């Protein structure tokens, strides 16, 4: 079993200005602070997700994953995720306006609310640094460092948050399908340790 950390590639990803941010909707923001996320939210909250976004003028087609107040994906990416994890995550339609100034077009995307989570980490096998504050000792993932994940905690997951490390991860199977279908533009992957 494999797992990859996912990040938006800020050098290549289509950056878009969304009409609003879900985190500004108070019940959602409070829920995130209280729980750390990683679960479904009430359907009525989804009306506060971005519904439109505008990208800068560009001659190139928007990337498969875009940065529009969070992770947003092309319909083809949504289909791949839902094939592997049907009904697990929440997708909210988003219209992206992009293209050259004279020929702006609308593209269909989905904001993805990742509703799965696995926070377990094998600290002694991970690249972490130990810190101390006010007499308390704790660990933090080193910048660019990999973490070791216990396999039982991620079995059956295909895209999930590790809130302890504040990273988004995908299974090897999802990674491979996205690569095979050419749906990784706008992303960077870093393979993690699974034991």
How much beta, percentage-wise? 35-45%
Number of strands: 15
Structural class: alpha+beta
Mean pLDDT: 93
Q: How many whole angstroms does the radius of gyration measure?
A: 18 Å
Number of domains: 2
The tally of helices reads 4
Distance between the termini: 9 Å
* Helix proportion range: 10-25%
Overall geometry comes to globular
Order the strands across the largest sheet as they lie in space: 2-5-6-8-7-4-3
**Which sequence of SSEs, written as H and E, runs from N to C?**
EEEHEEEHEEEEEHEEHEE
Low-confidence stretches: none
Largest sheet: 7 strands, mixed
Give a quick set of tags describing it.
four-stranded antiparallel β-sheet, 15 strands, 17% helix, single chain, 195 residues, alpha+beta, globular, 36% strand
Give the topology, please.
Layout: E1 3-8, E2 14-15, E3 17-18, H1 26-35, E4 52-57, E5 65-67, E6 71-73, H2 75-84, E7 90-99, E8 105-113, E9 128-133, E10 136-141, E11 148-149, H3 151-154, E12 159-162, E13 167-171, H4 172-180, E14 187-191, E15 193-194
Parallel strand pairs: 2-5, 4-7, 11-15
Antiparallel strand pairs: 1-13, 1-14, 3-4, 5-6, 6-8, 7-8, 9-10, 12-13
């Amino acid at each position: 079993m494999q797992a990859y950390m996912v990040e938006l590639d800020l050098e290549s990803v289509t950056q878009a200005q969304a009409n609003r941010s879900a985190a500004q909707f108070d019940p959602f923001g409070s829920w995130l602070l209280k729980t750390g996320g990683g679960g479904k939210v009430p359907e009525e909250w989804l009306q506060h997700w971005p519904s439109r976004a505008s990208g800068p003028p560009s001659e190139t087609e928007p990337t498969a994953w875009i940065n529009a107040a969070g992770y947003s994906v092309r319909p083809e990416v949504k289909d791949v995720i839902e094939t592997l994890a049907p009904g697990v995550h929440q997708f909210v339609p988003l219209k992206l306006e992009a293209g050259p100034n004279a020929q702006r077009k609308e593209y269909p995307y989905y904001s993805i609310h990742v509703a799965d989570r696995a926070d377990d980490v094998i600290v002694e096998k991970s690249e972490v640094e130990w810190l101390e504050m006010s007499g308390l000792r704790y660990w933090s993932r080193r910048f660019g460092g990999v973490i070791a994940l216990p396999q039982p905690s991620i079995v059956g997951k295909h895209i999930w948050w590790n809130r302890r490390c504040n990273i988004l991860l995908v299974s090897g199977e999802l990674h491979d399908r996205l690569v095979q279908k050419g749906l990784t533009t706008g992303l960077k992957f870093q393979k993690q340790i699974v034991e």
